[in-house]
Inverse folding.
C-alpha cells in the first residue's frame, strides 16, 4: 500500500498535505502510511482511494485492468455553417489521470474564417465504455462550449457519439462526433454515423 500511495500521489501532482486535506486526515498520518509504519482503517482507506481516484483494492496493491487512452488522437465533428453540413477533422491530445481525461486540440482542423477554433475539455470514463464531459473554446473570439457523450469501442481505439453546444447566434445545436487513434478511422466512424442516420430518416425510423 505504501508504494501505491506514494506513486499515485506523485502521478496526480499532489503533496502529502494535499492528499491529507482531500482525504480529511492529518498530514502526519499520510507520512506514516507512506513509510509503511501504519495501515489506515477501512473508512480512511476509502477516503484516500477516492482522493487518489483509484479503488481500495488498487490502493492495497491489487492490480486492476485500466484502459490507457493517453496520447495523440484525431477528432471529427459534424457541424453546420450557413445551414450547410461541414465535417471537420483535427488533432487532439488526451492526458489521462485515473478515470478523468483532459483533452486539448493541437490543430484547428479548418481555417478560422470557416469556423475552425481551438478548444479544451474533460471526459470521464464510466464502466470502461462510456465517456461524458464538456468542451470550451480557447480562442478568445469564439464562445462555443458544450457537452460531449461518447461510446468507447472495444480495445479503446475509437469512440463515437454526439456533442451538444451553443452556436454563434446563441442557439443550442448538436451533431455527431468521433475520435480515433488515426485520422482515417475517425473519418470512417463519423461518416458511418451520418450515413446510418440518413438511412434511418429515409426508412422512417
Amino acid at each position: 500500500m505504501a508504494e501505491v500511495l506514494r506513486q499515485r500521489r506523485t502521478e496526480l501532482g499532489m503533496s502529502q498535505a494535499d492528499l491529507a486535506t482531500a482525504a480529511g486526515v492529518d498530514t502526519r498520518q499520510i507520512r506514516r502510511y507512506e513509510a509503511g509504519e501504519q495501515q489506515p482503517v477501512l473508512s480512511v482507506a476509502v477516503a484516500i482511494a477516492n482522493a487518489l481516484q483509484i479503488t481500495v483494492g488498487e490502493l492495497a496493491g491489487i492490480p486492476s485492468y485500466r484502459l490507457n487512452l493517453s496520447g495523440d488522437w484525431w477528432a471529427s465533428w459534424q457541424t453546420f455553417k450557413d445551414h450547410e453540413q461541414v465535417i471537420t477533422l483535427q488533432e487532439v491530445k488526451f492526458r489521462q489521470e485515473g478515470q478523468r481525461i483532459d483533452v486539448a486540440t493541437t490543430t484547428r482542423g479548418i481555417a478560422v474564417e470557416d469556423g475552425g477554433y481551438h478548444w479544451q475539455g474533460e471526459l470521464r470514463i464510466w464502466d470502461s465504455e462510456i465517456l461524458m464531459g464538456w468542451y470550451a473554446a480557447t480562442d478568445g473570439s469564439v464562445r462555443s462550449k458544450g457537452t460531449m457523450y461518447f461510446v468507447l469501442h472495444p480495445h479503446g481505439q475509437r469512440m463515437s457519439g454526439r456533442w451538444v453546444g451553443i452556436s454563434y447566434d446563441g442557439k443550442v445545436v448538436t451533431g455527431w462526433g468521433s475520435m480515433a487513434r488515426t485520422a482515417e478511422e475517425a473519418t470512417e466512424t463519423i461518416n458511418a454515423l451520418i450515413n446510418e442516420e440518413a438511412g434511418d430518416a429515409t426508412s422512417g425510423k
User: Anything to note?
Assistant: The mean pLDDT is 88. Residues 183-203 form the longest helix (21 residues). Strands lie at 71-81, 84-97, 100-105, 119-126, 130-137, 145-152, 158-166, 172-180. The radius of gyration is 21 Å.
